[in-house]
What does this fold into?
Amino acid sequence: MSFIGQEIHNFATEIFPFNRSLTGEGVRDTLLKIQTQITDLKIDHYPSGKEVFDWVVPKEWKVSEAFIISPEGKKICNFSDNNLHLVGYSVPYRGKLSLNDLQPYLYSIPDQPDAIPYITSYYEPRWGFCLTHNQRVELSDGVYEIVVDTSLFDGVMNFGELLIPGKSEKEIFLSTYICHPSMANNEISGPSVTTFLSKWIKSKKNREYSYRIIFIPETIGSISYIAHNLKTLKEKVFAGFNITCIGDDRCYSFLPSRDGNTISDVVAKHILKHTDKEFLQYSWLDRGSDERQYCSPGVDLPISSIMRSKYGEYPEYHTSLDNLISVVTPEGLNGGYWAIRNSIEALENNSIYKVKMFCEPQLGKRGLYPTLSNKRDYKTTRTLTNFISYCNSKNTLIDIAEIIGVPVWELYDISKNLEVNGIIEKC
Amino acid sequence: MSFIGQEIHNFATEIFPFNRSLTGEGVRDTLLKIQTQITDLKIDHYPSGKEVFDWVVPKEWKVSEAFIISPEGKKICNFSDNNLHLVGYSVPYRGKLSLNDLQPYLYSIPDQPDAIPYITSYYEPRWGFCLTHNQRVELSDGVYEIVVDTSLFDGVMNFGELLIPGKSEKEIFLSTYICHPSMANNEISGPSVTTFLSKWIKSKKNREYSYRIIFIPETIGSISYIAHNLKTLKEKVFAGFNITCIGDDRCYSFLPSRDGNTISDVVAKHILKHTDKEFLQYSWLDRGSDERQYCSPGVDLPISSIMRSKYGEYPEYHTSLDNLISVVTPEGLNGGYWAIRNSIEALENNSIYKVKMFCEPQLGKRGLYPTLSNKRDYKTTRTLTNFISYCNSKNTLIDIAEIIGVPVWELYDISKNLEVNGIIEKC
Amino acid sequence: MSFIGQEIHNFATEIFPFNRSLTGEGVRDTLLKIQTQITDLKIDHYPSGKEVFDWVVPKEWKVSEAFIISPEGKKICNFSDNNLHLVGYSVPYRGKLSLNDLQPYLYSIPDQPDAIPYITSYYEPRWGFCLTHNQRVELSDGVYEIVVDTSLFDGVMNFGELLIPGKSEKEIFLSTYICHPSMANNEISGPSVTTFLSKWIKSKKNREYSYRIIFIPETIGSISYIAHNLKTLKEKVFAGFNITCIGDDRCYSFLPSRDGNTISDVVAKHILKHTDKEFLQYSWLDRGSDERQYCSPGVDLPISSIMRSKYGEYPEYHTSLDNLISVVTPEGLNGGYWAIRNSIEALENNSIYKVKMFCEPQLGKRGLYPTLSNKRDYKTTRTLTNFISYCNSKNTLIDIAEIIGVPVWELYDISKNLEVNGIIEKC
It folds into this structure.
């Protein structure tokens, strides 16, 4: 497992500053940057106003400038300094307000006084500014001039889609989101890791499965994508992962599909257990990302989530403290990348085998077993013989790895070697 | 949950003194009192000698008087003081016996010296007297005159039956017994609580299900009732409870049906867990009441038992100490009443729902979700969204309550509200 | 359970000294001794060179003499003193070697300096000698004369087979091996206990099932037997045990069939739990005897192993220390014999019953229940009534014993008594 974390971190640094939201320039800029890495990424869109199930694709949001001028004449809460300063989807506003009248439009976190919170108001017209609590308490009485030069108009909601064919039409589905402004673990780690996973998948020879990889706004994006592709998704997708919060180095986390019994659940738990036996297992009741749509009744896709520190569970979540320096690191991104890559590799290799003969094969004559019987050798070659004993036309490679207590990757060479030696064959 | 325990306790006090047994006046008096509360209770009977499966309906037992005159000329062990003094189903006897010869006919409990034990001999002709051990050890040598003026004759075994129709012909079955003389938790709590449950069920509007409620002698009564109604019971009854030992305030107890996997088991455990997480779970091997018949092989009705202190498991059981003062209390009866009523309510509401749309519904536009996204709101409205995520045409309300870890009663308003809002519908 | 351990130990002492191996005189001598106990044992063979699945029946091995003459002129490592001194299947060799050149042909165990190890080289031509480490370190420099007067030739591989008919053609299969030279727990305990089990089975009246009992060389023997009888074995065998390491008195051990869910697994665990609740449960991953063949994919026979100290798990294993004095004892053999006999008896009695009437039978009128109801009698006759309550045409006797928590042998008399009394009948 080579170290790819620095490369992913460099790319994350490039797309970090864009003002992502459900719609708009920031989303498009992010997708264009990803396209520099994955040239055949298709950048597509759904038009504002389009009905998708119970929802409507929102208007496009554009920010020209947004700031407040303090009684002292200082420009504060400037969107161009940090896009978190402006409440997401703020409607235009210009006016002068006393500090008292301004307060209901300000958001800060008293017990994280250094953090700018991340606030949005997608479905109710509002404007507002976010700032650190330290800054807020220093605000003097007087009149403040507010400039929110934004516009909301019928435009498009963009997303990226990448289809990579394999031997089978069955698909592994990867979904990540691109709708949060400058925050690192949630969210820029997600599209960054997914970009590099896409590059690896494209480079992989003899892919057993096809791949569907999408970069979309959370919730309304996944709902829109499902609305336009439900039949195909239900027919083709047999496994997949929602990729988010995959960049810090504090822990590994798992969140299951709704019923928790799909191959995506099995493989993710297997890989995480052998990556870090202390990995955290969340429940469906802790969900909060696009699995809410993919696993909703009637949609029922087999999607689980492999994460590092889960959204909502680390102190910097949804604030300006979620950055690429102290939170998301090359090591963190590297670990997240490999956890998902190893899971995909396990799906690709998850064949069912049968032994081609009755009783144990004679391994000794093929040089696969010691020729001198000796109590000291009793436990050698156990993984090999254990594996063979479960090649009964029913167990998959992951099933066997679970039963015999080894990481599935230890079985890749063994199974190939036994296949070459004519001892087992794929069912 | 209003307080109804005092009213039940008052009623229990009225029926406490009757000399209940398998048959006879005490049973009829009890049923007539219950009829004052439930006017449409049908008082019915099976004739002595009637064969019911492996059993025979016993003769009717009548006690005129029964006592012993001591050498000092004192009337002791007088049935008219306490009906527990006479061994149940004692055959007539008159005679004079020395203390030594009398001893084999006396029953007391050395380690509960204040208690008169409850003893019966239904299937072997015997007579005998029960008394406190303190009294017994004070008996002086000398001649005792015994008067057991009883008669056993071909008569009837009475029982009460109440059928309450609902929308469905499917029935919830409640059974309680009326064959023990003056003891409180086992047994007068059972028919008292069942009487008040019957009144509530009758008053309930839009009953989903029909109800079959019987007041019978234990064992021979339930066997006779099954013998006369087996086909109907097996066709109609989908859930039910045996109601006994439901009046003290020390604990809640659960005893399952034979295989422990019926809806009556599921609902009882769910309600008891949310009533008192320390409730006691017994096994089928601890059984001892009419579930022995209802869940016998071939009968196989889905009957479990919700109790307070279980028969055989509290010190006053089957003695004169099991009274309406120190053992059965208004609080105890109230808790027992509500545990069963809540279980019935849960059965009535245990629908299967499906979401009427793909993906999550947009709750915000219906005023069911906050419009401002903020990390502080992350866990609000979780019960609502968790519930929706499991409305997949398969889970019942109780299934979902179990999965998401809330009492099912928290889902009644939520499910109705979502139905009214067009988000879910019953399957 | 009478004490038969001394008799088995005496027999084990008789067959202990033979030079058993995969083939040869020692095997035949062992089978002939067993035939003195079981006169209808069929001694059969497969010829050298015969292909059996992935294997070939080996040449017959004959040892005329084998020893080393030390520089001092002393005859050491003499095969006629202890057959463990010669590496099993040693090819002939005569020559003179310096101590240094001899060392690669010597085998000893430094941390068990008093033990002669047991070493074989079945599938690679080799010669060698085994000796205690104490002896080895005393060897002086100088020239050693080596005599290995053995021969390997086309002959036969012998085995014993005993078929005992029963009412049903369904078979219980017992397999034990006879290919290890003078070692007690592994192996002579196996054929000795199996010999006495065979005698008991033959003497048993009204056998429900037929029996197939084989005494074979391990691995190549069981593979050959399967190769010649696969169809029959798969059609007839419904339960069975591999019998090995059944003679010491330190513990009981269980090793399951591959999937661990056959009746042989259920019965063995049940009997062992009620024999010694501390019995050791191994997993399929700990296997090491003929279950490797019987439970291999495609063969899939329901064979589990009941053992005392398992092969590979006790210090004397595969050395000269595994003897009939300090390791295998009459008590150990007796316990092992009864564990398997009780398991077979449980299989013979494992009927499914149904109650012939609805509701509980009236046990009192048949003298099976106390006639006086008294709280003190509350728990008497519980096994009886518990048993009846589960006679539902589905549960086997062992199922019921497991559910109600009693050893199955407590149900033999109860079930017969109830059957005689017309209360239950076999399904």
User: Anything to note?
Assistant: Chain A has three domains: 5-58+156-348, 62-151, 352-426.
